[in-house]
Amino acid sequence: MATPTRHRFSLDEWHRMGDVLGGDARVELIEGEIVEMSPIGARHAWCVARLTAALVHALGDAAIVWPQNPVELDEHSEPRPDLAVLHPDPAGDTTPRAGDVLLVVEVADTSLAFDREVKAPLYARAGIPTLWIVDLQARCVEVLTDPSPTGYRHRRVLVAGARLVLADLAELPVSDVLGPGTGA
Questions:
Q1: pLDDT, tens digit, for every residue of 115-130?
Q2: Which range marks the domain in which residue 91 is found?
Q3: Cα radius of gyration rounded to whole Å, the chain
Q4: How far is 63 from 75, CA to CA, in rounded Å?
């Protein structure tokens, strides 16, 4: 029995497929493969909304908050992180690339393994300086920094009572990100 041949999609092919897949499709291009994402539940949606509002307020004009939009990492990967924080770009007429990104955030309710094992190494290889994984099940935020070709070299886990810091631009209480039921 012959092994099936896989076709690795390029970004150009991926963009041309947009009309076929439709704008509402919950898919991402990850290392040349089309990956269907989990549906967004209420806890996940509220966490993204809280975090978006908090970052917009804290950052002002210092950066752009880019919720649930694509980020081009390389020729074969264009994920849609739950949130990205970008360097200010007055032109804003192309899909942001990894070099435009200060922070990506993945909110994990059912996707924790995929976010840790697939997306985190992808973001690190692309040189994204900071990744926050909001773990809604464990009620904590993993902060990954110091990207390298093999992954992020530093990992801290923050819980309610701690503060998330984004460079010298913003500081947020973890409990504000996690929402009700976090205690402190």
A1: 999 999 999 999 999 9
A2: 40-178
A3: 17
A4: 25
